[in-house]
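Input chain follows. Return structure tokens only.
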Amino acid sequence: MSANLETLPLGGARRDVERAGDIERTGDIEGAGNTDVGRNPGIALDLDWVRELRVNRSAVERRTATLGKRRTVKKEWQIAWLLKALSCIDLTTLAGDDTPGRVRRLCAKARQPLRRDLLEAHGIGDLKLTVGAVCVYHAMIETAVEALRGTGIPVAAVSTGFPAGLSPADLKLREIEASVRAGAREIDIVITRAHALNGDWSALYDEVRGFREACGPAHMKTILGTGDLGTLRNVARASAVCMMAGADFIKTSTGKESVNATLPVSLVMARLIRDYHERSGQRVGFKPAGGISTAKDALTYLMLMKEELGRAWLGPELFRFGASSLLNDIERQLAYHASGRYAAGDRQPLG
């Protein structure tokens, strides 16, 4: 991926991948789970900032409606962008019928997300490509940790009564602590949506602050459940409060709501991340989740991050996709670039 969408340098996918996100040293796409981005310690709750937040919905919708039309990447540059998107995937299985065997297969895919012949065809056979993380329920953490041992790929666990977030408060904290003890290096928590819907921002701040303390050394991704929040203004305010409370990432959705990640919601959250960075000096990551299943969608979200937050947010340290099927379509597109034809769906390995 080139660092500049408008003046892409000549060269193959390998060089563009190595320059991805304005990082000039070779191999930054490797070891996606290893991050040197500092934790967000949070700041004191600023209710004046929260209350003054406004969102112009029509302007947001106009902006996002044109995003995928104004920017395009083709040929080898598209290959590099797709490889960058791959490195930002939280490869996820959150089904009631999950088994250790399914999780081990998912982890094998996380360790080698692309077929060897595709890597060789694109001249990047020696790049150690991995996804950003593997995301599972608490019961599957130990299985995933063992399957990923030695790879540097972190295990993320959903917690705090996922997906509704309506478990008793003490059980939520104990669940986080148990997941960290089991080996999860990232915890995806869900907020109590009622706090945001009722405008009880102090309660939301205190809740997320408590989750942050329970996470200890594990990075905390805070799921807003934006499809349940009703308005973009609520999304903006909840984003601000969660970042002030110490969220390392803010995440759109659980993937279980009727409406999950959308570009308008993502634009609002990205701009709040920018505002928070200007106020605190802290960088907070962003994770759209739910409904992102095509390579084209992934490229559009990367363009959004590049334009709104800059090159630093074009890597797994500060950007993730919550996805279970996105990898399949990325691999399918890369196979097309290599062969000139699309493979049948049943040729794509588990993703």
